[in-house]
Design a protein that fits this description.
Order of helices and strands: EHEHEHEHHEHEEHHEEEHHH
Number of strands: 10
Number of helices: 11
CATH class of the largest domain: Alpha Beta
Helix content: 25-40%
Number of domains: 2
Length: 320
């Protein structure tokens, strides 16, 4: 008997996209993730799902179909790496089409489409940065999805509109127009993290052990830091200057959480813990992150925020 509301997650990472769909009532049945630490995290949070820990480029269609017992899947989701497209990457290729067709990492988007054509789900949702639509990329993606037998709608959604305590504008490419009802209010940093206890070496809440220490020079700057200011800046694409080590404003929504970003606590002169950053992404406390500390921070920052994923999933449930 076919499983109801079945979900396949490609480029699954630490499971943020799957978490939102799971909370909406979907059953994760298969995930693909090449990173070892992220795979362990996914397995620990979704033990009933099969997970393939290998390069998606080596996966053959017959193997995937066999693992799924040749059952039709309801939804395929995925977040191919955004580094080739994002404006925060100073080394991205100048020609937008080269980012999709010549960059080896950018070409992973085409692997998502290949697997989509193989599994033939009722719906698909692919997440990435809005810059994946730069130049002629929008037309190219429409054509690629069309070859796989699907239309492509480009749904631009803000995570903070759906209960996530941090800002995040992303495009969700899908064969459905997705426009979930927005939350009635924004969730601030203070609302997200104020009930957490002090970080502890033996934390009752997972991933809430003391964060890495700041260097003496950075700590001096932190002591003078006002809400919203940053300790350092780095160069992004086209010479853009981007902030890092931002002192969070307690009464506002947090800036975008990235794999490379670390935040300073609003009232304490320290970095946020992994759990505090996970709270800013809307992860529940029972979603545990495994691997080294930097790997855990990266899994949080590279995820699709679960509240946004849940809002998308509920829209698809109406159609299934």
């Amino acid at each position: 008997m076919k499983r109801k509301n079945s979900l396949v997650d490609l480029f699954a990472g630490g499971g943020g996209f799957s978490r939102g769909f799971y909370e909406a009532g979907f059953e994760p049945v298969l995930a693909v993730e090449v990173d070892e630490a992220s795979t362990k995290t996914y397995v620990s949070n979704f033990p009933k799902s099969l997970i393939i820990s290998e390069d998606i480029r080596s996966l053959e269609c017959w193997k995937l179909r066999s693992l799924l017992n040749h059952e039709k899947v309801d939804v395929v989701i995925g977040s191919p790496p955004c580094e080739p497209f994002t404006g925060s990457n100073p080394n991205r290729m100048k020609d937008p089409l080269d980012r999709l067709y010549k960059d080896e990492v950018g070409r992973l988007v085409l692997e998502f489409i290949r697997i989509l054509e193989c599994l033939e789900p009722n719906y698909y949702v692919m997440e990435n940065v809005p810059a994946i639509l730069d130049g002629d990329l929008r037309s190219a993606l429409k054509e690629e999805f069309s070859r796989a037998g699907y239309v492509a709608h480009f749904n631009l959604l803000k995570a903070e509109d759906y209960g996530t305590p941090s800002r995040r504008l992303r495009v969700f490419v899908s064969n459905a127009h997705i426009d979930p009802p927005k939350s009635s209010k924004l969730v601030t940093v203070l609302e997200a993290i104020s009930d957490l206890p002090e970080p502890s070496a033996d934390p009752q809440i997972p991933n809430h052990d003391p964060p890495p220490s700041l260097s003496k020079s950075k700590l001096k700057k932190v002591l003078r830091l006002k809400w919203g200011d940053s300790v350092v800046r780095y160069e992004g694409a086209e010479g853009r200057s981007l902030p890092n080590l931002i002192r969070l404003h307690p009464y506002k929504v947090a800036p975008t959480v990235l794999g490379s970003s670390r935040f300073i606590h609003p009232f304490e002169n320290r970095l946020l813990t992994v759990r505090e950053q996970a709270r800013l992404m809307g992860f529940p406390d029972n979603h545990v992150f495994l691997g080294g500390r930097d790997q855990q921070y990266n899994q949080v920052g590279e995820a699709v925020p679960p509240p946004l994923a849940r809002a998308i999933a509920l829209e698809l449930l109406k159609r299934l």
